[in-house]
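Next comes a single protein record:
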Amino acid sequence: MATTESDRPGIRVAIVDDQAMVRQGFGALLGAQPDISVVGDAADGDEVAELVRRTRPDVILMDIRMPRMNGLDATRAVLTAPGDAHPRVIMLTTFDADEYVFAALRAGASGFLLKDASAEDLIGAVRIVASGEALLSPSVTRRLIADYAARPERKPSASLSQVTERELDVMRLVAAGHTNAEIAGQLFLSEQTVKTHVSRLLSKLGLRDRTQLVIAAYESGLVTAGG
C-alpha cells in the first residue's frame, strides 16, 4: 500500500480502491487542488480501519467492489467505529445501478460517484461532502434513492409526527436536492435558520446527515419517486 502524508491545510482525503491506477489517478487529480490533501490510500476494505486511525481523513473515496472486505462492509465499519468524529464516505462504482449503492446510503455513506465521472465532478463531490452542505448531486444519485424508496417492501415511517410543518417544508426541499441557500430563498428564511431546521430534523429523526434525511423523506411518503 502506498501512502502519502501531507501537512497542507484543507480537506483530508483517503482513497480506497483495489485498482492502483484508480488510486494514483484520483490521488494526483485531488492532490493538485490547493484545498485538498490526499493523506493516504488502501487497496482493500480490510485496511480501512488502520488507514482512518493513522491519517484521520475528512472524506474517504471508497470503491464498492473489492476483494476480501468490500466497500459496503468497510463503510459500515468506519461509520460505526467508536468515537464522535467519523469521515464522510463517497462510494465509487463503475455501475449506475449497483445494488450495493442502496445499502451504502443506508449505512451512512454521503453519496456515490461513478468512476468515469469528470474531474470537475470528482473534485466538486469531495468539496460538497466535506462541507456537509448537500447530497451528492449527479442526477443518477437522486434516481437511485428514489428507486430504492419506491420499492414495494418500503414501509412508511411514523417518526415524522414530531416534525413541525416548517421542518417538513425544509425536508421536502432537501429531498429535492436543494442547498441551504436555495431553501432559504424559496422559504424566505435566513440561511442560518435553514441550517437550524436541518440540524433539528437530523436530531429528531436520529439521522447522520442529509443523505439519510433524503432517504427518510422518501421512506415516510413525504415525497414520492418522480414527484
